[in-house]
Every structure is written in C-alpha cells, then in structure tokens.
Amino acid sequence: MATMKAVRIHAFGGPDVLKIEEAPRPEPGSGEVLIKVHAAGVNPIDWKIREGYGNRELPLIPGWDVAGVVEKLGSGVTSLNKGDQVYGYFGIARDGAYADYVAVPADEVALKPRSLDYTKAAAIPLAALTAWQGLFDMGGLKAGQKVLIHGAAGGVGSFAVQFAKWKGADVVGTASGRNERFVKALGAEQVIDYTKIPFEEAVEDVDVVLDTMGGETQRRSWQVLKKGGILVSILSQPSQKEADAWGVRQAFFVVRPNAAELTDIAALVDSGKVKPIVDNVLPLAEARKAQELSQAGHTRGKIVLKVA
Questions:
Q1: What is the distance between the alpha carbons of residues 207 and 125, in angstroms, rounded to a whole number?
Q2: C-alpha closest to that of 210 among 127, 277, 152, 278
C-alpha cells in the first residue's frame, strides 16, 4: 500500500495528540479526485474535532480546507482534469488535508483563484463560504441594507466585511481597538471597539446581524435589529421566542461545501474586490502550534499550513 506523510489523531485531547507519521495514501472513489496538497487552511472546527466534537472515528486526519493540484480522477469525474489547480472545503466526515494527499468529492472543489498562490488560496474556502452563506443565502443581504458583523477581524468576519461592501451594504463591524484600521481598510464604514463601548449603544436599525461569537454577544444583538431584520448565527441556534418578542427573524446554519459559490468567490478575488487575510503560515510539522494559535482566538484573518 502506498503511503504519505500526514498529521493524524489517535486519541481525542489537546494539541499533543497531533502526530506526524506515515499513513495510507487514499485512492479516489467514484465521483472523487485525488489532490496533491500544497496548503491546508486551519479552522476552529479542526481543534474542536481534535477535542472530540462530532465523535469521529479514529484515527483521523484533520483539516478540511485545501489548495492543491488534481493528481488523479475517480470514475465518472468530468468537471475536472488531472493537473487542475483547485481549492475547496469538503465535508468533515472524511479525512482532511493535513497530509500530502487527500481524496475529495469533485463537486466540492473548484478551480482556485488564478491570482493567488496555494497558501493564500487555502485560506479562503471554509471561512469565505461561511461568510457568503450567512450574509446572502441565510441573511438575504441586499445593496443599501445595514449589516453588523461580529468578530470582523477574524477569518469569517474579514471575508464578510469584504462581501458586504462589494454587495453595496452599509457595513458595521465589531473588533478590538487594535484592529479598527484593519477592519475599516476591508470596507467597514463603522468599527465598534467592543472593549470600550457596548455595541448596542453604538448602532441601530440593522437589517442583518452576522453572529460569529455566540453567547452574550448573540443575546445583546436582538436590540440593534430593525423590525423584520434577521440575526444569523454560525455558532448556536438563536431563540425563536426572543425573535418573536423583538419582531425579527433568526437563523442558524452550518456551512456547506459549494463549488459554484467558490467559483464566484474566485472571480471576486481575481477581480481585486476580495482578498484573503493570512495571519500565519506554518509548515505541516508545526500543526500543533497552528491549532494552538487558532484556539487562542486572536488571529487576524487565517492560519495556513504549507504542505508542499
């Protein structure tokens, strides 16, 4: 059996359970492609699964953001060709991209932005799809509306600010003071320093709230919405009772792989309207450090592992 270098988890726990070792090289099944991994994005779901979220079978390889080259086609694949430069987010039920190779459904990856290298491309899929689906698929954000984006300097938030600006919305973001200039440069008209003032005292009449924080931040968000507005959370189900009381709507969703949306996002990147923000690039051997940085929660943009 052919093998490859991979980071695997044999027991749930802290960063020390991540082991670099030889693992079986996957083969693409029907409708799948084998990708030679060049870079893998690091996301909170990686360390959450490492700690036991989802009760996955072990051993497993984390990392569900990938950028690389199509090495081999499974049967029935006609949308991609060997040698295509691709990127994508694929479902967490399979082994991930902290490895030399990964096999993924062909309809969950798209041609990567031509203007980006693999490292920057790997920073896009999960975070950008989460922002896109939250703002547009769930929130129905339109030009001229006002949107409040919590955690505007983070991986999801930094894409959400850019997408909302591109759409023609009035963009308000929450961030720490050190990130105010950064978030404004992404396209926010107003940045609220949550360490100095409660956001609900600084903004009102919001059409869409994108909640990337949950907890108390979510509970305080109802009051900034205008009647008929919507609170969209990527972390926890908002209260329908509270939504009814405030005369607004609520939604919770889990991001879905979507090659068509990735193609649209790649076009925006190549046109210069959107750019990924990469905070740290680390070699695969430093996967533990990458997850520790992600778990600390203070990164600006994304963390990426360079594999090849």
A1: 26
A2: 152
pLDDT tens, per residue, the chain with 308 residues: 899 999 999 999 999 999 999 999 999 999 999 999 999 999 999 999 999 998 899 999 999 999 999 999 999 999 999 999 999 999 899 999 999 999 999 999 999 999 999 999 999 999 999 999 999 999 999 999 999 999 999 999 999 999 999 999 999 999 999 999 999 999 999 999 999 999 999 999 999 999 999 999 999 999 999 999 999 999 999 999 999 999 999 999 999 999 999 999 999 999 999 999 999 999 999 999 999 999 998 778 899 999 99
Q: What is the pTM of this model?
A: 0.95
With H, G, I as helix, E, B as strand and everything else as coil, classify residue 153: coil
Q: Residue 237: inside a domain, yes or no? A: yes
Indicate if 119 and 191 belong to the same structural domain: no
Of 12, 115, 123, 28, give the one whose Cα is nearest residue 67: 123
CATH assignment at residue 183: 3.40.50.720
289 plus 174 within the same structural domain? no
Please check whether residue 266 lies inside any domain of the structure: no
Domain that holds residue 133: 127-252
